[in-house]
Design brief:
It holds the Pfam family Glyco_hydro_130. By secondary structure, the protein is mainly beta. Helix content is 1%, strand content 48%. It has one domain (3-368): Glycosyl hydrolase domain, family 43 (Tachylectin-2, Chain A).
């Protein structure tokens, strides 16, 4: 890898231009500017849609833990008794005594377009006027972890909408990569990693999905695959109505370090099929160690032909965030890969590093194709 660096970090965000400033005067800070979608604009420049997790400087006050919520077109603060909350994790708090494990977020996420030069070497502009923020109650606690694909001149973006009633996937559409229009919910049921393919398969659009659950049934004892979240496949005639396919694309393997899997980059077309990067999580501590792996799906998008969880494509690199290490809050190494574009014979890969900053890595094409 000839180029591997942080391109955007919390201190690069100007919070005086945050959408939250319209309604909130409380001091906030950027918990993380990370997990960016990546695409190439019609101009040839690159575009990152950066997830900005904006948090209160003083989340606990007067015996209450506070959180930010979007409702009715404005941002408000909610308060919950601190003695009924576990605030040990900087990312969320859990409320005790309920029928379910209720969580509250310590930050609200919105998306910031960051335009880079065609080779990704420098920031050209930060487009605060094009920020993507919550616009419906199904995203009252924010929009998270975008993925972008460009198909036949149209840009499509999936985001995770978070609210007290559901965890869902929301689809956005744009003609130029800047003016995004919400198309509403396209997947429900806790789908947190919906990642469209960058291109049609025949007359179909195809996407990876990854449904979540509070419980999983055991896998067959004589099989190689384990139970738990799987990366599945779904097809659509219009990018809005999705039908799941019966066979999962990737399931956890018994005995493998990566006990949990999730979608990473949009699958891109290569000579040998659809190449995708996905994340695998090794159990370690409260968060786990996140690494990026490669898989190859056949040209008809029906089955996985290759997967390799012995040699990660990317691992967390603490040296990259050394200048901002004082802002880090995760105890385990995390790299969460979310975007990919071709650049000559190479690939430019975008990731979130340590849930803190945006990492851009140039990877030789021979290593991935």
């Amino acid at each position: 890898m000839s180029d591997d660096r942080i391109v955007f970090a919390p201190d690069d965000v100007d919070l005086t231009r945050s959408p939250l400033r319209r309604d909130l005067s409380e001091p906030t800070y950027v918990l993380g500017a990370f997990n960016p979608a990546l695409t190439r604009l019609p101009s040839g420049n690159l575009l990152l849609l950066v997830r900005v997790a904006e948090a209160l400087r003083e989340p606990v006050r007067h015996g209450c833990v506070r959180s930010i919520r979007w409702t009715g077109g404005r941002y408000v603060l909610d308060a919950f008794p601190a003695d009924a909350a576990d605030v040990s994790d900087p990312r969320f708090f859990s409320l005790k005594g309920g029928a379910y494990p209720f969580l509250g977020l310590t930050s609200l996420s919105w998306l910031l377009p960051v335009e880079l030069s065609a080779d990704g070497q420098r920031v050209v502009a930060v487009h605060y006027d094009r920020a993507v923020e919550p616009s419906a109650d199904y995203a009252q606690y924010g929009v998270e972890d975008p993925r972008i694909v460009a198909i036949d001149g149209t840009y499509w973006m999936t985001v995770c909408g978070v609210s007290g009633g559901r965890l869902c996937t929301v689809m956005y559409r744009s003609d130029d990569g800047f003016a995004w229009r919400s198309q509403g919910i396209v997947l429900d049921h806790g789908n947190k990693d919906m990642v469209p393919f960058e291109g049609r398969v025949g007359d179909r659009f195809v996407s990876l999905t990854r449904p979540l659950s509070d419980a999983w049934f055991v896998a067959a004892p004589d099989g190689a695959e384990g139970s738990g979240p799987s990366i599945n496949l779904a097809t659509s005639p219009d990018m809005l109505h999705w039908r799941p396919l019966a066979e999962p694309a990737l399931r956890p393997l018994k005995g493998a370090a990566a006990y949990k899997l999730g979608g990473g980059t949009p699958p891109v077309r290569t000579k040998r099929g659809w190449m995708m990067l996905y994340h695998g999580v090794e159990k370690q501590g409260a968060v786990g160690v996140y690494r990026t792996y490669r898989a190859l799906i056949d040209a008809e998008a029906r089955e996985v032909r290759e997967r390799d969880e012995t040699r990660p494509v990317l691992e967390a690199a603490s040296a990259l965030i050394a200048p901002i290490a004082h802002q880090a809050y995760l105890p385990q190494p995390v790299v969460f890969t979310t975007g990919i574009v071709a650049d000559g014979e190479d690939w430019i890969v975008a990731s979130g590093e340590a849930d803190l900053a945006c990492r851009l890595t140039r990877v030789a094409g021979a290593r991935l194709d």
